[in-house]
Amino acid sequence: MKKYTVAVVGATGVVGREIISTLEQRKFPVCKLVPLASERSLGQYVTFNGESIAVQVLTADSFENVDFALFSAGGSISEKFVPEAVKHGAVCIDNTSHFRMHPDVPLVVPEVNAHALKRHQGIIANPNCSTAQMVMVLKPIHDAATIKRVVVSTYQSVSGAGKEAMSELEQQSRVNLAGSSAEPEVFKKSISFNLIPQIDSFTENGYTKEELKMINETQKILEDSSIKVTATCVRVPVFVGHSESINIQTERKITADEVRDLLSKFPNVEVMDDPANGVYPTPKEIAGTDPTYVGRIREDLSIENGIELWCVADNLRKGAALNAVQIAEALIA
Is 92 a catalytic residue? Predict the structure, then answer.
């Protein structure tokens, strides 16, 4: 089997470390791992297949002889260094939002639209973490009954905002339990024992950028701009795992049982739907796993052809690292 030189940009971040772990767990054919980060990470090491590898400072020349470059270090870094990696012949899989809506860049969830990879020109975009798990659920329903409208409310964990956000939740929780308070730094408001109805900055129309990402990316991945999508994205005091309440209206009537059957047959979706016996997914129990989980599937009593469901996934895996590695695997295949 051919092996590949793989660079991970942002290797010391939460997602970067998860990418390295996922490459190892899935036995991706790596002959050389090149962990890259900013000068702040100089002197740090990552572990891959039992080997301790020094983190290198990212420069324009870091991509010599690299086959795959997996980026997860922020949009400004991708904007500057992805073109440099492509010049060196690397295929770039970018986890930031910078290239997602570029018309010449495929935005891919392999189970949903792997065919889009055929038109890549050296850059493939990884979708937003909350979009990735949602389209895993929408795709089989759309194919079967044609989705007209989606209303989604997200409950997104702090790991989606990075390791500093995870530290802030932990520290604030300890301080609050001790009877004191701590000023927020990463978030606009205190995150411990609280909910924050803002992820990313607000735009002129009142939606946040995160909400607009879900709208635009869903239409692009499903290749149907006629699907109406509206989103409300909320940060919750959970370390890992995004949850979503999704309301779907279809053109043709589809029953809850049909939806359960469709989703149970779709790759890497697991149905956990026996609420009478307490069976439905929660972020705590699914953290560290790969599938997208669905429960609370029921018909909407308020509209015709409506379906309600609850969707949970590990945002560091399917929402980021796993999806990026799956894209590379699909390119090899």
Answer: no
Render pLDDT for 174-223 as a digit per residue (tens, 0 to 9): 999 999 998 999 999 999 999 999 999 999 999 999 999 999 999 999 99
318 phi-psi bin (left φ>0, alpha ψ -120 to 50, beta other)? alpha
- Tell me the pTM: 0.95
**Which residue out of 92, 142, 242, 311 is catalytically annotated?**
242
Contact (Cβ atoms closer than 8 angstroms) between residue 1 and residue 329: no
Does the CA dihedral 285-9-39-66 come out positive or negative?
Answer: positive
User: How far is 232 from 215, CA to CA, in rounded Å?
Assistant: 10
List 92, 120, 129, 311, catalytic entry: 129
Structure tokens belonging to residue 80:
């500057």
- Listing DSSP states for 122-183 in one string gives SEEEPPPHHHHHHHHHHHHHHHHH-EEEEEEEEEE-GGGG-HHHHHHHHHHHHHHHTT----
CATH T-level assignment (fold) for domain 4-126+320-332 = Rossmann fold (3.40.50)
Handedness of CA 202, 128, 108, 223 (dihedral sign): negative
Identify the CA nearest to 324 among candidates 104, 102, 129: 129
Architecture label for domain 131-315: 2-Layer Sandwich (3.30)
- The half-sphere exposure of 112 on its side-chain side, counting CA atoms within 13 A, is 31
pLDDT tens digit sequence for 95-132: 999 999 999 999 999 999 999 999 999 999 999 999 99
Please say if 98 is a catalytic residue: no
